[in-house]
Amino acid sequence: MHRDKKKKKTHVPFRVNIIFFAVFLMFSLLVLRLGIVQIVHGEDYKREIEKTEDIIISHSVPRGRMFDRNAEIIVDNTPKNAITYTNYGADQKEMLEVAEKLAQLIELTPNKVQERDMKDYWIRENPDRAKEKVPKEERDKLDKKLEKKELDKEVYKLTLERITETELQELTAQDLEILAIYIAFNSGYALTPQIVKNEGVTDEEFAAVSENLQYLPGVDTTTDWDRKYAFGNTLQTILGNVTDTNEGIPKEKLDYYLARDYNRNDRVGTSYLEAQYEDVLHGQKAKEKNVTDKAGNIVSTEVLSEGQRGKDLVLTIDMELQIAVEEIIEKHLLDAKKIPNTGFLDRAFAVLMDPRTGEVLTMAGKQYARNEKTGQMEMRDFAAGTINTSYNVGSSVKGATILTGFQTGAITPNTYFVDRPLKIRGTDLKGSYSNSLGTLNPVSALRLSSNVYMFETAIRIGGDRYEYDQPLNFKPDAFENFRDSFSQFGLGTRTGIDLPNEQIGFKGQSTLPGFLLDLSIGQYDTYTPMQLAQYVSTIANGGNRIQAHLIKEIREPIMENEKLGPVFEEIQPEILNRLDLEPGWMETVQKGFREVVTSGTARSAFTNMTIDYKPAGKTGTAQAFYDGPERKNYDAPPSVINLSFVGYAPYNNPEVAIAVIVPYAYSKSSGYPSTNLKISRDSLDAYFDLKKKREEGKLTEINSN
Questions:
Q1: Is the dihedral of CA 543, 544, 547, 550 positive or negative?
Q2: Which residue from 520, 389, 378, 361 is spatially nearest to 450, judged by alpha carbons?
Q3: 171: which of 93, 175, 235, 609 fits an S-S bond (Cβ 3.0–4.6 Å)?
Q4: Three-state secondary structure along 9-34?
Q5: Is 395 marked active-site?
Q6: From which domain of life does this come (predicted)?
Q7: Is residue 596 a part of any domain in this protein?
Q8: CB 591 within 8 A of CB 443
């Protein structure tokens, strides 16, 4: 017994020693490991803890402005206070906390808060009650049928469905404001400034937020802008539109703009000049570098670039003349509406162009239509209709027909035809407005607007000769050749104007010989007002088809709001093609155009002793079919008369060309209104009166100095 006890005593200390040794060994290994961490890898871990990230943030700048040719501001920017939020990686809880703080400083109407947003917010604010919406027993049953991910989705769906209207009414006005701010936070993209409020930000709100930015991570105060139109709705459709910050980049162009360093919520031009010159107007963004730690906190901020406002556009448009011409159109359009059988008449267009440069001085269009909201008739800007609507224009194109006849060898300046009705087998008689206008040459044919002379010319261009009551047999390429010739003047082809959505018009599909005759007098294919302006400019300047353009210069932006900066680019006239003409051909047509206004079809409007600017031109009356907004009310399109006029002045040294179209002028004989001539005469008067006034003003200024 004694020996056994002794053995027991010696065995216990041995085990304790083993335990102590093991503890010592583990502690030694731990010390060694700590030493390695601190001594060997200490600097690496320290750098990792102190590691920061550089984040580049881009801020949009105001767009470039637009001026008219006389340096009058047309489109400007109106600055306004704005509050933004940039998400640097905050989670929903952190964003809600910031939204709650910001709600104490600003007022934001919860217009964009939807019922689903309110339910989500109610769930976040009432987690226990939300959980009760789907009892445990129901969850267990669903758990047996669904995978974890599908289960969570189904439970959330059921929870949303079971939140009652009464429970949503528990949300206070303050809750809804917080929710609206939170939604604004979430509507942007990470590391992209998002507008929270830019409408009605008071100076007090702006100051309060600015003073508390340190407590509002991600929030900032800045200056936003709105487009301001100095002349109201004048030329509005051509100036174009810009998206707001909520719209951002249109989806269909997202990839295009993102590849060009745009943010998703950047404002971009969506139509006409704003879209066409987006790259010029957008400017260079301001950029800043934010240095953040691993937790996402901003350590420092450095401005990399102040940015630069977009470049300014100087338009070829003369706004004073534009307004005068628009008023002229409105007056004569409303006067014409008082004449019987003008029920379809609802629009008119006038384009004035410098025939030497292709600069568009005015592109005026007006449409008389009913306001869907008020039910009242109103006059709308329809300047865009000068390039995106087309019409049968009638005899205005006869100058191109004569020159086509010259070029093809069908006629010469000394070719005479007897004007009498033509009888072509299988068709009704085709003639001029009078049974006989006598024996005519090209000049007198233009002066009296002879259809028969054009028919005879077209028949020869087609490769045939007219014989009474015999069919016509044209060359297979007769229509193609005729249209190719017309395109040399700008008819049936793009004018090259620096605007999107230019229409080229519609070509008649049938190639029956009789339609070539209609084509020769402007009653088959359709043309835009801008095409007519380019066509008559080509005749006015002696045969150069010059590209139409709206931008005269691009200017560098400067700080002084009312002034223009240095010229960045000056748009030079571009000749698209030159007519291949022999001496005397163009002069023949020009002489015919001059006689139209002195003793021909336009003499009633222009034979006035007060006219000293010596105009020339050509009238047009086309039998057409109505294709306006009331077309849906008719089984077949009603017949209408379109009126037109093309001209230039002075005839011996042209400085302005004009094209006027009055579609759907009347549907039956209405005393033959001359709305086209009245608009043309008054518009040319306005141009030369304005020129005289400015020249006298300059003379007075020089004398006073």
A1: negative
A2: 520
A3: 175
A4: HHHHHHHHHHHHHHHHHHHHHHHHHH
A5: yes
A6: Bacteria
A7: yes
A8: yes
**Under 8 Å between Cβ of 314 and 564:** yes
Alpha-carbon distance 176 to 147, whole Å? 35
C-alpha neighbours within 13 Å on the C-beta side of residue 78: 8
Q: Which residues pair with 641 in a beta bridge?
A: 623, 666
275, 202 Cβ separation under 8 angstroms: no
Which class for 160: exposed (0-12), middle (13-18), buried (19 or more C-beta within 10 A)?
Answer: middle
Residue 332 pLDDT grade (very low, low, confident, very high; cuts 50, 70, 90): very high
Residues 6 or more apart in contact with residue 158 via CB below 8 angstroms = 133, 134, 138
CATH label of the domain that carries residue 279: 3.90.1310.10
Tokens 């407590």: give the residue.
Answer: 215
DSSP 412-446: -TT--EEE--B-BTTS--B--SSS--EEE-HHHHH
Per the CB < 8 A criterion, the answer to whether 184 and 196 are in contact is yes
User: What type of residue sits at position 33?
Assistant: R
With tokens 């007098």, the residue in question is: 521
The DSSP line for 185-247 is HHTS-TTS-EEEE-SS--HHHHHHHHHTGGGSTTEEEEEEEEEEETTTTTTHHHH--B--TTT
Q: Virtual CA dihedral for 179, 182, 184, 190, nearest 10 degrees?
A: -160
Q: What is the DSSP letter of 637?
A: P
**pLDDT tens-place string over residues 534-546:** 999 999 999 999 9
Q: What is the largest CA-CA distance in the chain?
A: 160
Residue partners of 179: CB distance under 8 A and separation at least 6:
99, 110, 113, 117, 118, 121, 171
Between residues 450 and 152, the one the model is more confident about: 450
Alpha-carbon distance of 658 to 670, in angstroms, equals: 26
Q: Looking at residue 174, which CATH number applies to its domain? A: 1.10.10.1230
Q: Flag whether 13 is in a domain.
A: no
pLDDT at 241 over 70: yes
What total of structural domains would you count in the chain? 3
- Strand 298-305 and strand 286-293: the pairing is antiparallel
Looking at 60, 390, 395, 450, which residue is catalytic?
Answer: 395
The residue range of the domain holding 228 is 54-84+195-315
Average pLDDT, the chain: 89
DSSP string, 577-631: EE----TTHHHHHHHHHHHHHHHSTTHHHH--TT--S--EEEEEEEEEE--STTG
| pLDDT band at 26; cut points 50, 70, 90 | confident
Are 511 and 638 part of one and the same domain? yes
- Nearest CA to 270 out of 246, 245, 249 is that of 249
Last residue of a domain, one of 315, 333, 361: 315
> What is the phi/psi pair of residue 260, to 5°?
-110, 30
Helix (H, G, I), strand (E, B) or coil at 402: helix
- Tokens representing residue 45 in the block: 């871990």
d(CA 285, CA 288) in angstroms, rounded, equals: 10
Looking at residue 133, what DSSP letter applies? T
Spell out the long-range contacts of 258-261 with Cβ–Cβ below 8 A and sequence spacing 24 or more: 261/58, 261/285
Tokens 């290994």: give the residue: 29
- Write out pLDDT tens, residues 412-446: 999 999 999 999 998 889 999 888 899 999 999 99
For the chain, percent of residues with pLDDT exceeding 90: 65
Reported as a pLDDT band with limits 50, 70 and 90, residue 189 is low
Per-residue pLDDT, 62: 87
Neighbours of 25 (CB within 10 A): 10
Residue 68: inside a domain: yes
